[in-house]
Amino acid sequence: MDSYNENEIEETEIKQNQLTTSPNVEYKYAGFWMRFWAYLIDVIIVFSLNGLLLSPLAFINNGYPIELSLWTVNGILGAIVYYIYFLLMTKYFGQTIGKMILGIRVISESSDSLSWNDLVFREVVGRFIYNIMFILKLLYLVVAFSNEKKGLHDMIGNTRVVHIS
């Protein structure tokens, strides 16, 4: 009886591995609007986090921003919170809260788990490119016109965003 249970468990594990690593799996890619709404939800969350975490800095320097050359301390810390939120949520959950709400997830093109390398390029470098100048946010439109609904940051990070089935 024990060998039967072990064989059954092994067969189940093999089937699950084939589902996650099989190149023949058909994914439904998340389009521009689904990703836009997820990003908007995430930006609201990050804005709220920054408000909570950075509001004590208003009591320093008589309420004036602390300037470091071209940037302020609030600006630098706010950017760190922004990038850390996207990086850690995607690494540990495969999705941010906005993606969770809308039922979409980030997957790797090559393997079943997202690597730190891919995510740093997707979530930090890719998003940094979009945020350098406001006009570069128009690059998000690449998602609407590419075959696999990949944005520039997906191409850089070797990832895709798919619907959870």
Automatic annotation (TrEMBL):
Q: Which GO terms describe its cellular component?
A: plasma membrane
Where would I find the RDD domain in this sequence?
Answer: 29-158
The record's principal subcellular location, in a coarse class, is: membrane
Subcellular location per the Swiss-Prot or TrEMBL entry: Cell membrane
Pfam families per UniProt: RDD (PF06271)
Q: Which membrane topology describes this protein?
A: Multi-pass membrane protein
Listed transmembrane segments: 36-60, 66-85, 128-146
Enumerate the UniProt keywords alphabetically. Answer: Cell membrane, Membrane, Transmembrane, Transmembrane helix
Q: Does the keyword Transmembrane helix apply?
A: yes
* Protein name from the UniProt record: Putative RDD family membrane protein YckC
Specify the taxonomic lineage: Bacteria, Bacillati, Bacillota, Bacilli, Bacillales
